[in-house]
Amino acid sequence: MAKHTLFGRMTLAASxxxxxxxxxxxxxxxxxxxxxxxxxRDTSMLKPPAGQKVAIVEFVDLECPACRAANxxxxxxxxxxxxxxxxxxxPLQMHxxxxxxxxxxRYLQDKVNPNLADQYRNDVFQQQPAINSxxxxxxxxxxxxxxxxxxxxxxxxxxxxxxxxxMADYHVGERLNVTRTPTIIVVTQNxxxxxxxxxxxxxxxxxxxxxxxxxxxxxxxxxAMVKPAAxxxxx
Length: 235
Known about the structure:
By secondary structure, the chain is of the alpha+beta class. The protein folds into two domains: 1-30; 55-219, Glutaredoxin, CATH 3.40.30. Helix content is 49%, strand content 9%. A four-stranded mixed sheet has the order 2-1-3-4, with helices on both faces. A hairpin with a 4-residue loop joins strand 3 and strand 4. The radius of gyration is 20 Å and the shape is globular. Residues 53-186 form the Thioredoxin-like fold domain. It holds the Pfam family Thioredoxin_4. Residues 1-29 form the signal peptide. This is Thioredoxin-like fold domain-containing protein.
């Protein structure tokens, strides 16, 4: 009886695997571009940057564990398919230090070097589990600046300019009706598809590869190369 059950399970598993391979082949590189009215409202910002046919739009919180897990996957997809990332800061109110971190990243982006700002964001995600307070974040950021040959500013945002930019991103997310992070969307000139952030569908970030590939197949290659993760759009 046990052998029969084991054989039955093996047969069932083989059948499921075979079906999965068939479905996977059919589902490969699909970009449905189907709106999700239960999730989003004003979608006017869901467009790629000028000169691009496909982009990855993301709303992220540097203190969000799910954003930390998604970050290397999104970065890999952008690099693999040579599409830009349009990033919006969406610091959640429940998080202790995410707004300060987003403001500091914006300071690096605007006043120091955009590439250094991208590196800072990636490194903060990596260090995230060890940052449990604003003091932890401040100490880590001071060490990070020293390690990268930078001088820590006495005040990184004396006029509140960078905070206003972060909050402008946040308000874009409110218009879209972002309710969770990360919210990740693959966009073309006239379509968009949610990768993560849906209220009713799948939120598996690993789908980004097939969705981006499908979007590129529908739209054709980008007409201008933009370094992945370097594009930043504000509406």
